[in-house]
Design goal:
The protein has 111 residues and is mainly α. It has four helices and two strands, in the order αβααβα. It has one domain. Helix content is 70%, strand content 4%. Strands 1-2 form a two-stranded antiparallel ribbon. The longest helix is centred in the N-terminal third of the chain and has 24 residues. Keywords: Membrane, Transmembrane, Transmembrane helix.
Length: 111
Amino acid sequence: MHRSGYFKLAMILGPALLSLGAVAWVGEGKTWRTWDWLDIVGEGGAAALTLAWIVCVLASRPGGRVTNLLVIGFAGIFLSLWQDLLDEFFISPRGGMRGWKTYRCLLAWWC
């Protein structure tokens, strides 16, 4: 994998880790007895396979527009599957995050 491939992979894993931190900070953890193991295996496996596809694309294709578009598409799929997986471990606050002023400020870049 080229140096730019590692950068692109970091640009995908960075938001994934930030979303994990945000969900862990705002949400409430579920007990392991309430986890749905079939969903965890299915969603986690799909996210892992999508991440593997990203690595394969970055390792096997030359840099260029098509490679970038493939990585962007796979990154969107991975991040949505990642959020779906995090939903199995954390309970979002009632009413979602609409009332959380800090979160709105971070997303909109204004307070």
